[in-house]
Amino acid sequence: MLQSRRRFLADSTAALGTATALTMGQTAFGTNSARRRLRIAALTTIYHKYSHSEHIIDRFLEGYGWENGHHRPEMDVVSLYVEQVGANDLSRERASRHPSLKIYPTIAEALTQGGTSLEVDGVLLIGEHGNYPHNEKGQHLYPRYEYFKQVVDVYRSTGRTAPLFNDKHLSWNWDYAKEMVETSKSMNFGLMAGSSLPVTWRQPSVDLPLGAEVKEAVGIWGGGIDGGDIHVIEALQSIVERRRGGESGIVAVEAFRGERFWNAFEAGSWQAGGWDPELLEASLSRSNQLNPARPTYSDVLPTTEDLKRLAGGSYAYRFEYADGLKVSIVQFQAGPDQQGGGVVGDCNMAARLHDGEIFSVQFYLPYYSMRNFFSPQVHHIETLFQTGKSPYPIERTLLTTGMTAAGIESLFQDQKRLETPHLAAVKYQPTTESTFRRT
Fold this sequence. Notes:
The chain has helices at 2-12, 16-19, 52-62, 91-97, 107-112, 144-158, 174-187, 229-240, 259-265, 277-285, 304-310, 374-387, 394-412, 421-424; strands spanning 38-46, 64-66, 69-71, 75-84, 102-103, 122-126, 164-167, 191-194, 202-203, 214-221, 250-257, 315-321, 326-331, 347-353, 358-363, 418-419. The protein is globular and about 60 Å long. The strands form three sheets. An eight-stranded mixed β-sheet has the order 9-15-14-10-13-12-11-16, with helices on both faces. The chain is α/β, with parallel strands linked by helices. The longest helix has 19 residues, at 394-412.
């Protein structure tokens, strides 16, 4: 798949201009793209070690390990906007080492390089990390939508567009997210978004067969409300979207926390108010970072009492899909008076197929010192910039953005079951070929 992708990128370079033109008929950016390297603007909230900005932008600047060598993207980050600059900032050092990279004081200037025309061929929008408030629901109010609006203002004023990557969920706000997708479609520019988990390695290295029948699925992690929710929700969605008929949308959500969570945990089935315990066990059994339930053991399946002791602050979302699929997202978290980091340090899922078989995988996040699970995502972003089209449906992240917001809303409304007609309207087909990294 990776070799054929390279051949495709080489063959598609000449078509770059028409892929990203506005519908109003103005000239596209790529008329001389076959003779020059693409120019990328990076817009970010903050840029420090282990921030998403470092993980993504550095890979465009310095390259990354890929297959049997060190891959260097055939494009240059030439413009950088950083809103918050602290003592641990890396942007100034990066600009000093890369002569083609210049820092600008505004988003508009980064896109136009201080002029009046759009001077870049792709945009990295990385609104993650930094000092931004939380609302009363626990959502982190990162300004992704506000950045996006400023980008679109430049597109409209200059009469040109460029493909844009938006890191993680589109926004904390469903209406903002929907507007972002609709704007990209009406202006005809490629929009890609989402978590790095759907495209990282998997253990085992398998995908759900396209068109498989799925009855129920469970995903587990310990990432926390909002910023952690989107990762496990989108990882699981990248698998169940491959079921028969494609994605049908979500009709309802219900959240569980406190005593209601443990009652659901012990219910024994979806019909009884919980989830399939065999799917939860399969998910736990895929973990490489299962917290030992007892001090003298390094590997033991935790009991309910163990889980209460390790993760008293756990919560869950149950999603009902329009085609009858049932999905539970279980977030194992330590309670306010507990220590030890909860239950799992990785993201895992399991699904019950209609023949009764269980399909399960771990979304592999290797060696946090290098964060190499960002490399597959960056490789796909390169595809976006090279072709003008997202390598997987933006509707996936639109749906998972809405699922995250709806789950949080249910928690906020005292774990009330909520109908979600707006999410029932999000229907799409997955790519035929899987997009996670195999090698």
